[in-house]
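ugh ok so i messed up the first submission bc i forgot one of the chains. this is the corrected input, ALL of the components this time, i swear. 226 residues overall. if the numbers dont match what u have on ur side tell me asap before i send this to the collaborators (the ones from the other lab, u know who)
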Amino acid sequence: DAKTTQPPSMDCAEGRAANLPCNHSTISGNEYVYWYRQIHSQGPQYIIHGLKNNETNEMASLIITEDRKSSTLILPHATLRDTAVYYCIVSPNTGTASKLTFGTGTRLQVTL
Amino acid sequence: DAGVTQSPTHLIKTRGQHVTLRCSPISGHKSVSWYQQVLGQGPQFIFQYYEKEERGRGNFPDRFSARQFPNYSSELNVNALLLGDSALYLCASSMTASGANVLTFGAGSRLTVL
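and heres the new structure output, hopefully the right one now
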């Protein structure tokens, strides 16, 4: 599996957009980009995933560069409840097989 | 609807003992995965089962084993516990129609080995 690089920590003011970057320069053509987050003392929570097109859902937007070597997760209006560790993961979507390789993620602190 | 449920939530064992952790997936989810999360690190993949068959195994010793039952629930067993096995053990399920990597995690079982 390709590896990802994320900044260890970021701060964001409540109500502002949080832009979390991820580098995945060795991503393969069949690998998707997944984002999960983990709020303290809880299990990870799926946020969004994409292959090469930008994606948006009720939680966030995912922007993937044209060469697919990096991506950005955007939380449009961060709240205190978005304080968490955010994991960027690349993995092939092989149907019934699953093996996600979590790194150390980005610790996002949302402040008043 | 109930999410992924895990039991027990907390447990304390001593070195050399064995432990069984249990997981019930979301109704309709046929895939179950197990992850170990040591304090300060991201979750590490242990096993994945789909339709009662092992589909993947991480880099863990043979002391770790798992199985999936006909109702898709799963057990993770760890024998001859070591201090380093102290961790949060996470179970996740997925509906493969959405892609096997779209996981819903439980809250985990926190194991402390003394």
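quick check: The first strand of chain A starts at residue 9 and ends at 13. that seems consistent at least. Strands of chain A lie at 9-13, 18-23, 31-38, 45-50, 55-56, 61-64, 70-75, 84-92, 106-111.
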